[in-house]
Specification:
It is built from nine helices and ten strands. By secondary structure, it is α/β, with parallel strands linked by helices. The structure holds 5'-O-[(R)-(carboxyoxy)(hydroxy)phosphoryl]adenosine and zinc ion.
Length: 339
C-alpha cells in the first residue's frame, strides 16, 4: 500500500506544505512572505502572523495538487526546530491538531537534517543517482554553515561550521550594504554573472581545521564600500556587478577551501550540497570543479529544493515513518541547532 506523508515547514519566513507518495513529490507548495523585504530581514512577529494566515490555504493546496484527501494521509511530518519559536509553534500546533484529529502518526523532524535529505526526494518521472553513505555534505543557509559526514538518514556528524555569521547571512548583509533587497543571495548571484570576480579583493578568514568565519569578510566589505563612497557617492551604482561578483567569489573561495580539506581528510565518494545558498550558480560550478578534480560525485538538489520547502520535511518524515519513529504530542519546538 502507498504511504502518503504530509510535510509542514514553518521555521522561518516560508510557509510550506508538501505531499509525498513514498519518496516521490506529489506537491510542494510554498508561500513566501514578501512583507520582510521592506525591513531588510525577517521580522519574527510578522512571520508568525503570516504563517497563521497561510497555513490552511497552503496545506489545502498541497492536498489538492497531490490529488488526495486528508483521510488518505499516512502520517504528518513537521519541522520542530531549529528556527524562530513563534513561527515553529504555528506549524507544530497545526501538525499536532491535524494528526490527532485524523488519528495518524505525528513525526517531528529537524530542519537542518531535512535540508541534507532533500536530495533523496524524487520528482515524478525523473530518475537520478542517489548519494551513497557515508557522504560529505555542506549545508549553507541563511542561519547555518555546516560541514557534515552523513553515515545514514539519521546519523550526521558535524565536522565543522561557522564561528560567527552564516554564508547566507553574509550574502544578505552584503546586499543590504549595497542597498539591494532581502534576501540578498539570489540578487547577488544574478548581478555576479555580469561582473568581474577578480576586480576587488576582500579578506577571507583562514581558521584552522574545518571551521568557517565570515564576520571579517563582511566587515572588510563594509569598510571598503564606505571608504569608496567618501570619494565617489555613485561608487556602488557604478560598480554593482563587480562588487557582487567579487564578494560572491570570496564567499565561494571560503566554502570550497574547507570542502577541499574535508575531501582530503575523509574517505567519502559522494558530496551533497544543501540549503538556500546551494542555489548559488557560482558555488555550484566551483563545487563541481572541485569534485571533478578529486573524482568525487557531486549531488546538487534541484533549485526548488535548496531553499526552505516542505518536501524536504516530508522526505525525512518518510524515512522516520518506515522506521516507526513517531513523536509525542508533547514534543516542544527548539530554536537552536541540536548538533
Ligand atoms: O535554506 P534557506 O531557505 O533558509 C534557512 O534555513 O536559512 O536559506 C536562505 C538563504 C538566504 O540567506 C538567501 O540569501 C540564500 O539562502 N540564497 C542564496 C541564493 N538563493 C538563496 N544565496 C546565494 N545565491 C543564491 N542563488
Ligand atoms: Zn532552511
Amino acid at each position: 500500500m502507498s504511504n502518503f506523508i504530509l510535510g509542514i515547514e514553518s521555521s522561518c519566513d516560508d510557509t510550506s506544505a508538501a505531499v509525498l507518495k513514498g519518496t516521490e513529490i506529489l506537491s510542494n507548495v510554498i508561500a513566501n512572505q514578501h512583507i520582510h523585504a521592506e525591513y531588510g530581514g525577517v521580522v519574527p512577529e510578522l512571520a508568525s502572523r503570516a504563517h497563521q494566515q497561510n497555513i490552511i490555504p497552503v496545506i489545502d493546496s498541497a492536498l489538492k495538487r497531490a490529488n488526495i484527501t486528508k483521510d488518505q494521509l499516512s502520517a504528518i511530518a513537521y519541522t520542530n526546530g531549529p528556527g524562530l519559536l513563534g513561527s515553529l509553534l504555528i506549524g507544530s500546533s497545526f501538525a499536532k491538531a491535524m494528526a490527532w484529529s485524523l488519528d495518524i502518526p505525528l513525526i517531528e523532524v529537524d530542519h537542518l537534517q531535512s535540508h541534507v535529505l532533500a536530495i533523496f526526494a524524487d520528482k515524478p518521472g525523473v530518475t537520478k543517482d542517489k548519494p551513497r553513505f557515508p557522504f560529505l555534505s555542506l549545508t549553507v543557509s541563511g542561519g547555518h554553515t555546516r560541514l557534515l559526514r552523513v553515515t545514514d538518514y539519521f546519523e550526521m556528524e558535524l565536522l565543522g561550521g561557522t564561528i560567527d555569521d552564516a554564508a547566507g547571512e553574509t550574502f544578505d548583509k552584503a546586499a543590504k550594504i549595497m542597498g539591494l533587497p532581502y534576501p540578498g543571495g539570489p540578487v547577488i548571484d544574478k548581478l555576479a554573472k555580469e561582473g568581474n570576480p577578480a576586480r576587488f579583493k576582500f579578506s577571507i578568514a583562514n581558521l584552522p581545521g574545518l571551521q568557517y568565519s565570515f564576520s571579517g569578510l563582511k566587515t572588510s566589505f563594509l569598510y571598503f564600500v564606505r571608504d569608496q563612497l567618501k570619494e565617489n557617492p555613485n561608487f556602488i551604482q557604478e560598480n554593482l556587478a563587480d562588487l557582487a561578483a567579487s564578494m560572491q567569489s570570496a564567499i565561494i573561495t571560503s566554502l570550497t577551501k574547507k570542502m577541499e580539506l574535508a575531501i582530503q581528510q575523509y574517505d567519502c565518494k559522494d558530496i551533497v550540497l544543501a540549503g538556500g545558498v546551494s542555489a548559488n550558480s557560482g558555488l555550484r560550478t566551483a563545487m563541481q570543479t572541485l569534485a571533478d578534480q578529486y573524482h568525487r560525485h557531486l549531488h546538487l538538489p534541484s533549485l526548488d529544493l535548496t531553499t526552505d520547502n516542505a518536501a524536504m520535511i516530508a522526505i525525512f518524515g518518510y524515512y522516520k515513518f518506515i522506521n516507526s519513529e513517531f513523536s509525542s504530542i508533547n514534543s516542544a519546538p527548539y530554536s537552536s541547532a541540536k548538533l
